[in-house]
Amino acid sequence: MSFSSPLRCVITAGPTREPIDPVRYISNPSTGKMGYAIAQAAVDAGWTVDLVSGPTHLREPEECILYPVVTGEEMYHQVDALFDACDILIMTAAIVDFRPKSPLAHKEKKGDAQLNIEMEPVIDVLKTVSQRKKDQFLVGFAAETNDLENYAMRKLKEKNLDLIAANLIGSGSGFALDSNILTILGPDGFREKWPAASKESLGRDLVALVTRKMEEGRT
Ligand code: CTP
Ligand code: CA
After folding, report:
1. Full-model pTM
2. What digits encode the pLDDT tens for the residues 73-92?
3. Which in 2, 32, 176, 178 has the greatest CB count within 10 A?
4. Which of 141, 147, 167 to probe ligand 1 with, by most ligand atoms within 8 A of CB?
């Protein structure tokens, strides 16, 4: 395997938004904290970082290149453009899974007839780009309300990942909190349960783990 020096990493973060009409959208409570914390840790580790981010209130680490996006489709095009040249892709973004099929050109009045929105799936960014994976090291995230490890393992396989960081939504972990509880799974039976920690600390641990796993893969 051959990697760039310094390592080139693409990190996605934050929520996406899918428009219903010009003033309304579908989104989720992601704040981007986990992805931005990983971006900072990656910069500190000397990696070159491209941060593809949905709308957040966070400031990106100075040393990384920020690619702001809004919709899942935009996130897909940006990641697709950066993927071939990267060594590592870490997808923390909470991409909205379904979007209105035909967003309305004008603001829908609330007094008008009941709003029925036909929805269609948003492209799966990770699953799509990972089909042309070469040497890239791919890390996904999985947020689940139940059956955490089974669902996460399924995603790891479906999306051709090297690691997946899974967390249960609720009780001290998940969206919009400063800390998280992660279970890290790999395709080779690798499994580590990390205790509750700040997202900054988890970011550093994850960057260290990716570094270790890539070094192991090289030997
Ligand atoms: N992901 C992606 N493109 C999507 C949806 C998710 O690349 N359209 C990525 C996320 O960034 C994350 C991983 O896939 O790294 C798992 O996301 P998650 O929402 O947990 O899983 P889904 O495959 O969307 O399945 P579901 O939401 O039904 O559990
Ligand atoms: Ca999803």
Report:
1. 0.96
2. 999 999 999 999 999 999 99
3. 32
4. 141
What ipTM does this complex have?
A: 0.99
Backbone φ and ψ for 79, nearest 5 degrees, come out as: -65, -40
Give me the residue spans of the domains in the chain: 8-99+120-218
Which among 46, 171, 70 is positioned nearest to 122, based on CA atoms?
70
What φ, ψ does residue 138 adopt, rounded to 5°? -110, 130
For residue 174, name the pLDDT band (cuts at 50, 70, 90).
low
Among 27, 126, 144, 169, residue to substitute to test ligand 1 (most atoms within 8 Å of Cβ):
126
Establish whether 28 is a catalytic residue: yes
Ligand 1 contact, 91 CB (< 6 A): yes
Which CATH number describes the domain made up of 8-99+120-218? 3.40.50.10300
Residue 214 vs residue 173, higher pLDDT: 214
CA of 42 to the centre of ligand 2 (A): 25
Banded model confidence at residue 113, pLDDT cuts 50, 70, 90: low
Q: Is pLDDT at 219 greater than 80 in this prediction?
A: no
Ligand 1 atom 27, closest CA:
97
Residue carrying the six token digits 């550093």:
204
